[in-house]
Amino acid sequence: MIMPPPVPGKGKRIAVHLFILASVTAVLGWSWVGTEMNLSELAGSGSNLRLFLSRMLPPDLTWNPTEARPFVPPLRLAAATVAVTLQISLLGTFLGTLAAFGLGFLAAENLTPIWIHHPVKTMLALLRSIPVLVLALLFVAAVGLGPFPGVLAIAIHSIGMLGKLFAEQCESAEWGVWEALDSVGANWLQKVRFAIWPQVSRQFASLILFRIDMNIRESAVLGFVGVGGLGLWIENYRRAFDYRSVATMVLVTMLVVLAVEQASIQIRRRLR
To answer: What φ, ψ does residue 40 adopt, rounded to 5°?
Structure first.
């Protein structure tokens, strides 16, 4: 029986794979211990969860004030604040996209020299490294409470994230059309317009829709630091221990996110 010749480097590849597996296992074990994971404690937490949910159910779905609750019911208040949440996320995403659009091309390694794309990449990394809540706190201190600081926080964080994603799309574009345009003397803007943009435009649109989806969730959370919208009233009702109203606001937030996600899916399908 003739044995097949040994594959060159097979033992080395196996050793590398074993090393990677051992490294991942060690990191996960370190994370498990550091986060104090306790499955037995989780298994015994059912009574606490049931108690918390019993305070929230059923949600307060009244629309008109009653003698028992003469103030504006949470459902009507939620309907009024949905618009603010959408306005914060949409305007913040729009402003962030405007800035990220240009910075994404400048941050692409295949489109600009290192002395341009490296500083731009570093700036984008710094912008997205700051949590949205911290940005919101910063702008609340600068311009006061209300939706405006939320718009600024969403915009700044969107610049960092979208700029990075736009640059990665540009770096994965095919290079043949760029070289052809370069050979006939096209300038940088012309090459970006006719060689890169047709390849990345649909991906850009999909990323923007995905970011809008994320920013609606972010704008709801920003209410906890004084930014207007659904999150603000979730926090107000929580402080008042009115958990049924908290459940109403959470339910409305979930419905808004689901509606926006369905709209986003339909738009992305049309872009294919």
So the answer is: -65, -40
Q: By the 8 A CB rule, do 136 and 227 touch?
A: yes
Among 217, 211, 249, CA closest to 230 = 249
- Find where tokens 């999909």 sit: 206
How many whole angstroms separate alpha carbon 143 and alpha carbon 105? Answer: 31
Domain ranges across the chain: 73-271
Contact 209, 264 (CB under 8 A): yes
For the purposes of burial, counting CB atoms within 10 Å of the CB of 224, is it exposed (0-12), middle (13-18) or buried (19 or more)? middle
DSSP 134-190: HHHHHHHHHH-SSHHHHHHHHHHHHHHHHHHHHHHHHHTS-SHHHHHHHHTT--HHH
Both tokens of 271, joined, read 């872009």
* Cα separation, 220 vs 1, whole angstroms: 70
Cα distance between residue 253 and residue 107, in whole Å: 35
Copy the structure tokens of residue 137: 């706190």
Q: For the chain, what's the residue count?
A: 272
Q: Residue 182 contacts by C-beta under 8 Å, 6 or more apart in sequence?
A: 191
The label of the residue with tokens 């090393």 reads 19
Spatial distance between the Cα atoms of 21 and 177, rounded to a whole number of angstroms: 41
CATH of domain 73-271: 1.10.3720.10
pTM for this structure? 0.79
119 confidence band (pLDDT: 50, 70, 90) = very high
Residue 1 pLDDT: 47
